[in-house]
Amino acid sequence: MNIIKVMSDDLSNKIAAGEVVESLMNIVKELVENSIDAGANVIKIYLMESGIKSIKVVDDGKGMSREDCNNSILRHATSKLYSKDDLFNINTLGFRGEALPSIGSVSKMTISTCDGEESTLLEVTGGVVTNCCSADLRRGTSISVCDIFYNTPARFKYLKSLNTELSNIVNYVNKMALANPFISFYLENDSKVLINTSGSGNLLKVINSIYGLEVTKKMLKVESSNSDYMVSGYISYPEINRSNRNNITLLVNGRYVRNNDIIRSILEGYHTYLPINRYPIVVLNIKTDPYIIDVNIHPTKMDIKFSKINELKDMIYNMVSSSLNKLTLIPEVKYEQRPVCNIDSVDTINDKVDFKDKELKEEVKFEEINFDFNNDHVVSDNEEEYVEKVKMKKITPLALAHGTYIIGENEDGIFLIDQHAANERINYEYYLKELGKNTYTIVDLLVPIKIELSNNEYLSLKESINVLDEMGFVYEDFGFNALIIRSHPSWIKKEYTNETIRKIIEVIIEYKSFDKEKFNEKIAITLACKMSIKANEHISFDEMVVLLDRLRNTNNPFTCPHGRPTVITYTIYELEKMFKRVM
Asked: Phi-psi bin for 475: left (phi > 0), alpha (psi -120 to 50), beta?
């Protein structure tokens, strides 16, 4: 008896649906991508109960003929690929021909479409056509998907909560709006509008509609290119950051993708500008020849492979780091007027807020600021010298508060400087510079230092013992699992000699796969933290003057190596607002 048989179309479609339709967001994604490929200028998405009850996507694209409409629900039927050569030159978001049959096999789907000549209404239940007739429709396509997973209950029970499913859909539509600023996106759930972009083509306006005005004002336009790639978009000032990577949007030829190598290059460009485990808001669109990328990796088409990935990573890293290096990044303390109320009214104050009035005030505030969305200024290379000169003006110290914060002033306002963070930045750049040198001045120790290690630590150290030679240490084995250090580089401070050498050896042991650049970075950060002035350590006025002057001369005086700010300011204007000198 033969046991190998060809699957039925219904079964194969349901299996394919397991990959294509992983969540409600995937349904929205496939339908929206079809609308974009159809040349739509307006895409409207209507959800009921976060999409669990129904999802409807309406567009004004070119529509389909009746024959195309019937063929669209057949597996591997597509208008985007005709030969194997087309697979290496994909210019559309969809191309597999799996989306509609997969969605239709696990739901009740209705397709209404018109190509300008004939209109079609097609009803599909569980992958089976139940009705096909004419309808009076405008040009475009409307696809409604109801009772999702009604015939695969095991899949239905693994859907997330309503809020989680809705959050994933909103996040995806936001990404597509950023990828396609010339298309108007409208999303509503249970008659509540969640997204509404203008489709004006201005990316900064889309960023404003998603993140708000305060973020938009702190976005910096960036662009760079080489012979294979052209990169453009916006990156946030370091003070605008989030707790996860979800706000790093990567677009390749208008397609939203995920690629950890590119994200890592962006974060390396922000290195020492952001606190640990904080992430920027970034929108980058990478344009390239379709022949040098591969999106045919996963049915969701969100993973991608690049040719010449190292050149692209280096270009993005240099673009981000050089753009941030040209900015003055001193956070301003903003004055916010708060309503005054007595204790008795606390419980009822929320009831007195008129929501419509609040919206009106926000709108007026927006108009008063009059932010220019067309101000796409990019700091050019010939401006770099000027920017460097004014990166941080001279600050005159006045006093020390709580043994930690230096209070200073200049013509722009009052400044608070974190003495530990400032000293960390100074020391970090000093150590990084010294570690980058090829030759060192050597200092002999009057009393050699003995370093004792455990068995495994000693073996790990021996694997990379040449690093000590390259750094200029003179040492020798001493007994079992121990070293005697007789000389060291002169940049190690005398009062911290023992502690510094032990820290260096710890880092060598930690790095199993040795990378000189990362090693120097780790050493510089570790030593800078340990060797800097601590909080609650009172320093003299002269020491404050020296510290601030040395901070001004660093390459990045605005953050410590861990990304924390070194200085914040109260501008003259903000101070006068606080004291009611200006109204």
From this structure: beta
Placement of tokens 């100074």 in the chain: 426
525 and 392 Cβ atoms separated by less than 8 Å:
no
Give the pLDDT confidence of 369-398 residue by residue, as tens digits: 345 555 554 544 444 444 444 478 899 999
The set of residues, in sequence order, having a beta carbon less than 8 Å from that of 540 and lying 6+ positions away, is none
Angle between helices 455-463 and 497-510 (to 10 degrees): 80
Please tell me the distance from the alpha carbon of residue 413 to that of residue 390, in angstroms, as a whole number: 15
Tokens of 145: 């998907």
How many Å apart are CA 401 and CA 423, to the nearest integer? 16
Q: Which of 262, 241, 242 is nearest to 251 (CA)?
A: 262
Contacts of residue 353, Cβ cutoff 8 Å, sequence gap at least 6: none
Instruction: Give φ, ψ of 476 to 5 degrees.
Output: -155, 155
Q: Of 263, 321, 260, 255, which is closest to residue 288 (Cα–Cα)? A: 255
Decide: 544 and 533 in contact? Cβ < 8 Å: no
CA distance 158 to 156: 5
Mapping DSSP to helix (H, G, I), strand (E, B) and coil, where does residue 137 land?
coil
- Is 319 within 8 Å of 266 (Cβ atoms)? no
Which pTM was predicted?
0.71
